[in-house]
Amino acid sequence: MPALWSRIDSRLNFGGSNLVKVCSNVSAGRQTFNPKTPKMHICRILVVEDYEPLRRLVCSLLQVDHLQVVGEASDGLEAVQKAELLQPDVIILDLSLPKMNGLAAARQLQKVAPEARIIFLSDETSPEVAREAFNIGAAGYVHKLQTYNELLPAIERVRRRKQAVAQHSLCRHEMIIYSDDDGLLESFSEFVVNAMKSGRPALVIGTRSLLDGILQTLTAEGLDVAAALGAKTLIAVDVYELLSSIMVNGYLDPIRAQNGSAASLDELARVANGGRIAACGIVAPTLWEQGKRDEAILLEALWDELLTGYEIDSLCAYSAHSFAGDRDNCHRSISDRHSTVYSQ
């Protein structure tokens, strides 16, 4: 851990005994991470990290108005005991802990503090480890070298999700089953046109030909596509470029997928200025058609979890022929991830 800490200290340009003081001063300037986030109750946080300097860094970063560190723990067993006693909203959990490792502790924490959301803080870069963490039910996963840049945004996303659930905020995650490429173009074009004409910024992810078709339809409908792209009220992303950034050795990297999706949605939410946003895409469907069904289901789960933090209409599209064969079981494994399923 000291070797990792020297890398963290170097990366953040913090020096020795001034570490906590500097972090505390900097954190004061980070209180407005997302000024459009609705107000909510103070978020109570338990910090679990066995290396004291890093634990002090994390606690210092959390010294902002809407966050409160209610406890600290240095091993897995202590984390479970304090979580049961304190019932925090969020638990920042080191993956490598003495007495009980982070994954084992997370399973126990879900039993003793079921309302708490767990954000793993780890020096482990393996996608397989991250996948296991998300499969257990992690709400976030931050690499220790990215503590300063990514921890507060990760907590902010968790706060938004908890508030959305509490307020029953409308979040629609719909699925359409299309018969041919013309049907896909028609469905996505109609979705984006309706969103933009009603003032909702939109994200669309598709193949280059699909994106070109949608942009042509928007132009035909009288929308200024160039202006929308420049103002980020419309974000168009090539699905294969996106997949190349979130897949590692043929497997989905949950951390990259989570961070990339959150960045796009945060941009739309910023432009929307508190209003509703829209997103449509074929990322998970493309994985499904490539035979990477476990990856598609995992991505749908990550997307579903992420959406609860936004007022959003979301649509994804699967081709009818992709469910050939064991149609009922395949269809159910995907459709269960959506609020509504349509068929052309």
Distance between the termini: 56 Å
Beta-strand share of residues: 15-25%
Biggest pleated sheet: 6 strands, parallel
Overall pLDDT confidence: 82
Q: Give helix % range.
A: 40-55%
Write the element-wise H/E pattern from the N-terminal end onward.
HHEHEHEHEHEHEHEHHEHEEHEHHEHE
For the secondary structure, the number of strands is 13
Number of domains: 2
Query: Which fold does the CATH topology of the largest domain refer to?
Result: Rossmann fold
User: Radius of gyration in whole Å, from Cα?
Assistant: 21 Å
Spans where pLDDT lies below 50 across 5 or more residues? 4-39, 164-169
> In the CATH hierarchy, what is the architecture of the largest domain at level 2?
3-Layer(aba) Sandwich
Helix run count: 15
**Class by SSE composition:** alpha/beta
CATH superfamily of the largest domain: P-loop containing nucleotide triphosphate hydrolases
* Overall form: globular
CATH class designation of the largest domain: Alpha Beta
Spatial sequence of strands, sheet with the most strands? 8-7-11-12-6-13
